[in-house]
Each structure stands twice: as structure tokens, then as C-alpha cells.
Design brief:
The protein is α/β, with parallel strands linked by helices and 411 residues long. The protein is built from 21 helices and 13 strands. Helix 8 crosses helix 9.
Length: 411
């Protein structure tokens, strides 16, 4: 996609000296619309409103895959919002390279972001051609298995401690009328579940060889074959979920209608909103209880170039507010994610968040596939795993062959 002609027309009228004192309304677009997510967004809005500016909520229903094309279309079409959510990685790369996004380097240097934001890969994902274009707001990790303690009690089996025990408990759950594994119909859910299985079963080195080095031979090899066998188990256990959205699948676990869900730590926001207590009502297994490594993906906010001087100044205030330690605590406790800085007080963190913080402190982390692959390559894997989970006639062997072909041509 070529945005440069649009950028040239827009940049001619952009005002960047932030000298005026008047506050401004700033539209912020995002795809956080579940109950837990809405509670977390309210904390960001409250913190920004305290600066004298006004957060104008621009929530877009659906997943990021639904929201991003709308956001991009508005920016390239000359109707930019004040700020917009993207995931850490390459999703806004072309927009920034085309001159449509605001350079935050001066603010980042003033507030020493490179010293306080950890891991540094988060800020690296915001950096394009040496300039910083986004403010990271959280660390989200995909590598979690969420379990309903009540469901396993009803089925008469112990709460599993790892993926193998979970698979073995499947028949008992089914006999008790409980859906073993809940996976919604959105393509990114199946794709994410596969990535979690890859790190847990094949390990860190194989994950990097496939997604970072784009090694077709490894993608077609025996280590990944084991992952596809596990994905086949997950497909069998998830048959009958009959829900679409991720938070609907989470609700099946919350209500004890499903035994577990492979989902990122944002699921915690839903458990918290439902009044459930980690370790009592539900159990979390980072790395599926097999390989306690988490990816440091998550969310950041980008700021399109604007013609309005007051709104431009409000953008700077919002970027600073997002990184502020008080905002980081309030937002991430509601969101279920980890803060992007290590100098904040998270004494109120629950058992699952503490597990994530311990893994982060040990350095057992990996960058996410969003940071390693282009949006087009990501879409190809999403399509593959969505089809694999929906169609039992696709064998693990056939799916792995297609996967290796995608990796061979990935960028």
C-alpha cells in the first residue's frame, strides 16, 4: 500500500510547535469492547481527562483484524483520529514510513523512555528508521491456559498442572457434559493457540527458527510435527465450542461450562469483572504448564499527524499519560496485562499476574509473531489455522505442509 501522496498533502498543513495552552477533545480509536477491556479503557480515559483534555472514545467492535482496516482507511483517507491502538510490531510500519504518523522521539528522549520501558524490544517495535512513533501501554502474553476449577471438580478429576494432564482429562469433562476446550470462531484465536502450543512443545529455539529465521526445513520437520499433533488434540477437544468471540469462550470457562481456554492474559480482565479469584475459582498455567516462557506482545498507541495545533498538543499529553507509572498500574490491573515499566508498584497483583511478573523478571521472554512477521504473512497463518480447526478432514500432515510453504515465503 502506498500512502506517500496522501502524506505529502497532509504534512503541508500540520502544525507541530505545541505552544497553546487550551485543552482539546481527542478521539482515540481501539478495539477493546469486552467488559474487562472497557473497565481498563476507563482508567486510561480518566487519567487523560485529568490533564484537562477530553478522551473521546472511538471503540470499534470486533477484533483487531476488523478494526485495523477501518483505522488505516481513515488515516489514509484524510480523516485521522487523535490516537489509535495497534499491536506491538509492524502493523503501522507503512503508515509511519509514509509520513502519516507523528514522530514521538523528542518526548521519548525527554522522559527517558528507553531507560524505563522494559523489555527494550517494546520500544524497538515503535522505532522505524531511528524515530519513535508509538507509546507502548502494556505487555500482553499469549502463553496461558485458563482452567475452571469448578468444572474439574464437577468432572471428578484434579485440576491439570500441564497440557498433557489437560488432554488426558478431556474424556472425563465430556462425560460430565462439559466442553473440554473453548475456542471461538475468530481466525486469530486458532492462530494464537497454535503459537502457544509451538513454544510450549517445540521450545524457544524452534519458535525463533520458524518465525524469525523463516526456516522452511524446520517448519516442515519433526519438532513442528509434534506441535501439529497437539493442535489436532486441541481441535478435537474444542469441537462443539459454538461461540465466536474470544470473551464468549472465556465466559464458558468462567461459568464452568468449559474446562479451559488457551488465551492471552487479557482473559484475566473477564475473570476479574466476574468477581472470580485466581487460584480459588480458576487456575492459570503459563506456557501451558510445560515451558514457562511468555511473549512480550501487547498494545501501543500511535498518533496520526493532525492539522489542529491544540489536538496535536493533546496528543503529546496522552502519550505521556499512557507511560505514566500511575496510569500503568491502574490500567494493567484492570486489563490483566503486565506494565511496560519495571518501577511501578503492583502489590495488588493477583496470583496469575504475579506468575507473569516472575517470568518477566527471569527474562524468560520472546518477541511475539506480530514483531517477527508482516501483517500479510500473519494473515496467511491465521487463514490456515482457522481452516484447520474448523475442518477435521485436513490432516496434521497436510496442514504442516502448507505451514512450511507459508514460512518459506514469509517476510
Amino acid at each position: 500500500m502506498n500512502f506517500r501522496s496522501v502524506a505529502a498533502a497532509l504534512a503541508a498543513s500540520v502544525v507541530l510547535p505545541f505552544t497553546a495552552a487550551q485543552a482539546a477533545d481527542l478521539e482515540v480509536t481501539h478495539w477493546w469492547t469486552s467488559g474487562g477491556e472497557a473497565a481498563a479503557v476507563a482508567e486510561l480515559a480518566k487519567a487523560f481527562d485529568a490533564t484537562g483534555n477530553k478522551w473521546v472514545d472511538g471503540a470499534i467492535a470486533g477484533s483487531g483484524g476488523t478494526a485495523r482496516p477501518i483505522m488505516i482507511s481513515r488515516i489514509t483517507g484524510g480523516d485521522p483520529m487523535g490516537a489509535t491502538q495497534f499491536n506491538h510490531g509492524r502493523q503501522a510500519e507503512e503508515l509511519a514510513q509514509s509520513g502519516l504518523m507523528r514522530d514521538l522521539t523528542a518526548l521519548a528522549e525527554k522522559e527517558k523512555w528507553r531507560e524505563i520501558i522494559k523489555p527494550v524490544s517494546l520500544l524497538d517495535s515503535c522505532t522505524i528508521d531511528g524515530k519513535i512513533y508509538c507509546a507502548p501501554v502494556n505487555i500482553h502474553s499469549w502463553q496461558w491456559l485458563w482452567l475452571s476449577n469448578g468444572a474439574f471438580e464437577k468432572a471428578g478429576v484434579p485440576v491439570p498442572k500441564n497440557w498433557d494432564e489437560f488432554v488426558a482429562a478431556g474424556p472425563a469433562l465430556q462425560k460430565a457434559g462439559i466442553q473440554p476446550l473453548a475456542i471461538g470462531g475468530q481466525p486469530w484465536q486458532a492462530n494464537g493457540a497454535f503459537g502457544v502450543l509451538m513454544i510450549a512443545i517445540a521450545g524457544k529455539d524452534t519458535y525463533l527458527k520458524v518465525f524469525q529465521d523463516k526456516d522452511e526445513e524446520v517448519a516442515a520437520g519433526p519438532d513442528i510435527a509434534k506441535v501439529f499433533k497437539a493442535a489436532d488434540d486441541a481441535r478435537r477437544l474444542s469441537k462443539g465450542s459454538n461461540v465466536q468471540d474470544w470473551n464468549q469462550a472465556t465466559n464458558l470457562v468462567i461459568t464452568g461450562k468449559a474446562g479451559g481456554q488457551i488465551m492471552g492474559d487479557w482473559a484475566q480482565g473477564e475473570f476479574q469483572l466476574a468477581g472470580q479469584v485466581a487460584g480459588k475459582d480458576y487456575t492459570c498455567l503459563p506456557g501451558l504448564g510445560v515451558n514457562e516462557i511468555i511473549t512480550t506482545g501487547g498494545d501501543a498507541f500511535y498518533f496520526p499527524l493532525l492539522k489542529d495545533e491544540e489536538k496535536s498538543k493533546a496528543q503529546e499529553a496522552l502519550a505521556s499519560t499512557l507511560v505514566n507509572p500511575k496510569t500503568q498500574v491502574a490500567f494493567n490491573l484492570k486489563k490483566g496485562s503486565l506494565p511496560i515499566r519495571g518501577d511501578v508498584d503492583l502489590a495488588a497483583a493477583n496470583d496469575c499476574m504475579k506468575k507473569g511478573l516472575e517470568i518477566l523478571a527471569k527474562g524468560n521472554v520472546l518477541v511475539s509473531t506480530d514483531q517477527l512477521m508482516s501483517a500479510d504473512s500473519q494473515k496467511q497463518t491465521e487463514d490456515l489455522f482457522s481452516e484447520f480447526f474448523a475442518n477435521e478432514s485436513i490432516t496434521p500432515e497436510a496442514a504442516q505442509k502448507r505451514f512450511a510453504e507459508i514460512i518459506a515465503s514469509a517476510d
